[in-house]
Input
Amino acid sequence: MIQTGPTLSEIESAIRNIPDFPKPGIQFKDITPVLGEAHLFAASIELLIGQFKPGQVDAVVGIDARGFIFAAAAALRLEAGFIPVRKKGKLPHSTYEQNYELEYGTNTIAIHTDAFTSGSRVLLIDDLLATGGTAAAAAALVQKAGAQILEITFLIELSGLKGREKLQGYPIRSLIVY
Ligand code: AMP
Output
């Protein structure tokens, strides 16, 4: 295949590993260098969209906060709406909420109850799949709100944390796997 524009390996090279951020023991994957280079950002959006074309997707759902960046750009590219999944207490209208487990404690995310028309075809995008708790909770919210998930897509997957096991039954795709 003839490759035009940056390859996945150029995007991978731009991702910075920041040890011990925000806590000791975490290897934080910093995607800001990808966002800051126009050609890498554009290529990451094309790769996240994959085989989907305008007209095949009604909405792209992004997860608070870095997921918003990729999902909003993908939504524009696909001529689809953008729907935010936010941390509890941030969305102003009526919401569905979903709890999930963190390493220490729990977290709650929310979506507007009227975010979708029934049966909307949705892509769910986040920057990174780690333990899978966030994406599984977001997927549950999308289903509660009456939409159908076509695919869950990540720029990065930390495969050692086995997040895929929490997302069984959904089509999953990740671009860069560590
Ligand atoms: P999880 O629920 O464990 O799959 O965590 C996924 C969420 O936490 C994503 O929204 C990521 O933005 C963030 N996250 C988790 N681990 C990392 C990491 N090592 N580097 C950057 N972001 C991370």
Q: What stands out?
A: DSSP finds five helices and nine strands in the chain. The two ends are 25 Å apart (CA to CA). The pocket of adenosine monophosphate is lined by residues 26-29, 63, 66-67, 126-135, 163 (CB under 6 Å). The helical segments are 8-14, 32-36, 38-49, 66-77, 133-144.
